[in-house]
Amino acid sequence: MASVADFAQAQQPVYHMERPAKTGLVDWLTTVDHKKIGILYGTAGLIYLLIGGLEALLFRLQLMKPDQNLFVGDTYNGLVTMHATTMVFLAVMPLIAAFSNYFVPLLIGARDVAFPRLNAFSWYTFLFGSLILNASILFAEFPAAGWTGYAPLTSRGAHPGMAIDFWWAGLTLLAVSSMVAGVNFVVTILNLRAPGMTLMRVPVLAWMMLVIQFLLAFSFPPVAVGLILLAFDRSFGTVFYQVNMGGDPQLWQHLFWLFGHPEVYVLILPSMGIVSEILPVFSRRPLFGQHAVIFSGIFIGFVGFGVWGHHMFTAGMGPIADAVFAATTAVIAIPTGVKIFNWLGTLWGGKLTFPVPMMFAISFIPMFTIGGLSGVMHANAPLDLQQHDSYFVVAHFHYVLVGGALQGLFAGLYFYFPKITGRMMSETLGKVHFWLFLIGSNLTFWPMHDLGNRGMPRRIYTYPADAGWNDDNYIATIGVFFMTAGILALVYNLLTSLKNGKVAGRDPWDANTLEWITESPPRVHNFDFTPVVFSERPLFDHKHTEGLEIPVPSQPEQIHMPSYSWKPLWVSTGALMVVLGLLMFTVVPFIWLLSLAGGVVIIGSVYAWVSEPV
Length: 614
Prior knowledge:
Elements: H1 4-10, E1 16-18, H2 24-30, H3 34-63, H4 73-108, H5 116-133, H6 163-191, H7 204-236, H8 249-283, H9 290-303, H10 319-331, H11 333-347, H12 356-377, H13 381-387, H14 391-421, H15 427-453, H16 470-500, H17 538-544, E2 558-560, H18 567-583, H19 592-611
Helix pairs in contact: 3-4, 3-5, 3-16, 4-6, 4-8, 4-14, 5-6, 5-18, 6-7, 6-18, 7-8, 7-9, 8-9, 8-11, 8-12, 8-14, 9-11, 11-12, 12-14, 12-15, 14-15, 15-16, 18-19
């Protein structure tokens, strides 16, 4: 019976690679290697996860007991706004980008993404956007309009300071980064698959990444338009959202939620893909109904563009619009249920083992199901009228994104860490992280269902002692301490395992897909020769099918990798200059010249980019 080592031995033809060597900081500043860019995204995501978690801990301390004054007014509102914005845009999304950048080319048998320099541009634009988004702290203020940024709370009259300007400017750059990445990965998955890898042989994780890239490419333009209109209102005195001057605040709601609800699926579908890769490995059987899992993900992505109005049942859209959005919201639960039963079918009768990735993957199923069931409730418009903007909705949202998306990403981190670093993470510390985080999540978010049903609204910084909310808020805050301890265990595990973890080898989990053929960590060019795929589980079939030959090319492949480049950084710097000039327009004379200079930098850098040898 063949082994991965046999395959590796066959993968030793002499190759030619055209790529000048770089070292140190210059290497990381100019890299276009999808794996290094993935590591950069992952590092940023983990840092912002800690920042967003700290913000949550601070405002939960304020709510731990009634009538406290630790953080009040706009300070509290700013913490809530930045916590939500940070966790969605700066923690979970870059962690997803880390997985897509690092593993999508490996999953499909490619050497890199379709447009490596565009990939580097996307990273730098994200980095600059995240820094601007947090830059208002330099002015001792946070944006305090809520992460949804509802007009007129974001108007110059309601927020005369600079915080909202930094908020829209940072989010605009993040939108550009996401749209560019979406186009890049759609082209990569559709065009760079290994020979024999038909669309139905593409791994489920890569399929879910393909679906979310379409969502990114088509859902971010509406919110980008909304942010540009907000910038015009604040910087140039237009009145797009000023109802007393003929504007329409509901315009922002439509533009935001036309992005915001597909964004929920951007956050959850990758974790569904990760779980779909992990469960078969540790169940020792194929994914039950793999094609159904793939098509249900496609259906979720498609219908996800038609449910945004359920966020606006209280906005007075009318009975026809309410009925349409109620129907689509109920329908989208069907493909989600299909996935859940497919995962259970995979586990049923399998030879189960329970390393840390499997524990997180299994716990994902009930945690996400709880969030999904409470979400289906809100397809009922009259019920939504009762629970809208209450803590019941907070519980629903966090069961989906913390119990679902974040736990799925943790499962993927423990599963793929050996491939990224060549070392295993500690199982003991991983299980400490798992139990602390799981217990903490339920202690924090389950009582919020009761708080919502008892009438506690979201985004309030204090409450009277006789409201009946004391015990639930106390328990919820204790839960945050459990979650914090779990995250600290993860950080310690990561740092110690990087240096002292057990050497992993190529395939420590006896896995199924192409990425486990490569070295750990993979070489710059991923594969010494192009793999040929014959099934949905190419590596598993190679290892466990008698007589299956390895297709080795008769002649060495000439491998060409794109050269390192400064141009993506230059173009992103130009974009940064443009938005800085626009957001400072009202407070610094002649700052508009910075935007003009940024435009010149972009044009010159793009010209140098396209003139650069491939």
